[in-house]
Amino acid sequence: MRQLLIAIMIMLGLPCVAQHSLYNLKFKLSKKHFVDTIAIDFQYGRITLPVSFNGKTYRFLLDTGASQTTIYKDTPIEGAKTIGFTVSYDAFNRPDTVDKVLLPPMQIGELVLTKCQGVVRHRLNTNDHFDGIIGFDLICKGLSMKIDVRERILVLTDIKSFFNREPGINIAYQLERFVPYIWVSPFTDYRELALVDTGSSQLYMMSKINFDRALEQHGDNLEQLVVGRTTGSRSRSFSGTEPMGEVVKLKLDRLLIGRYLLEQVPTETTGLNSHIGTGLLEYGSVVFLPRHRIMRFLPYPTDGESQQAKP
């Protein structure tokens, strides 16, 4: 309806304020050559951090599966100005037209972001204890980020060499719709792209579409990993719940993430894209290095014991 109204206004030569707004990284940072360590909370697989607008502090979810900042309609930010609309894709790749806003100066730690754009959405879950979402645009802007849930810290820096001496496993990521995907291998002779999604509390979830394709090509290897099948709807997005369908429960012998091996990994299929969630952060911290599009995984010490994925 909105698009039709705009088209009519254009044909009539009327002024049209609402415009389609593209992905924007033109926000400005208050600091250069800085390192900032920010305290975070980590509960129920969710990472939240304090974000301030106009001297008022909110709790925002850190979600690398979101391309940009999101604020909720039921938690309005004073000074946010509507500047148009944009087509946003939800977790099921369903497009939706949402309002785009220019946010007032946004403070994260000691860093202030000005002219930052965000989108406005209805809250996904009324039980969520956060007021908005910080997305992957911070990293796409060029900031390196370390997430360490054991120490409950987030480290942000614009110094390209700052994490050079941090030992770990480098995993290349690629951007699709401005969010990071990495290659993983849930069983022998099979690889797939998985979204690195700190908005999910799971360790690994496999796309049902990918599972069905893999079953056709690797039936014997994959079928023996199936421990059950049921019908249900496991996932939700801003546009609603996924349709009811078959959910396959799996017990993976191993899951290879880069060169990092996890054994005996329970998982199930989802209507979402395959994704790696914050369950991985129970085994180590991660550093995003946008200059080379690298996610460095830093395993926690294990005293020589093999890694076992928790159920």
Descriptive overview:
With 311 residues, the protein is mainly β. 9% of the residues lie in helices and 47% in strands. The chain contains four helices and 27 strands. The protein has helices at 2-11, 137-140, 208-217, 219-223, and strands spanning 28-29, 35-39, 41-43, 46-53, 56-62, 69-72, 81-89, 95-102, 106-108, 111-114, 117-121, 132-134, 144-148, 153-157, 169-172, 174-176, 179-187, 190-196, 204-207, 226-232, 236-237, 240-241, 245-257, 260-270, 275-276, 284-289, 294-299. The strands form four sheets. Strands 1, 3, 4, 5, 6, 7, 8, 9, 10, 11 and 12 form an eleven-stranded mixed beta sheet that branches. A hairpin with a 5-residue loop joins strand 7 and strand 8 (95-102). The longest helix has 10 residues, at 2-11. The termini are far apart.
**What coarse outline follows from CA principal-axis ratios?**
globular
Model regions low in confidence, pLDDT < 50 over at least 5 residues: 1-20
Main β sheet profile: 11 strands, mixed
The radius of gyration computed from the alpha-carbon positions, rounded to a whole number of angstroms, is: 21 Å
What is the residue-mean pLDDT, rounded to a whole number? 86
Residue share in β-strands: over 45%
Portion in helices: under 10%
Distance between the termini: 46 Å
Give the count of helical stretches: 4
- Strand element count: 27
Briefly note the structural class of the backbone: mainly beta
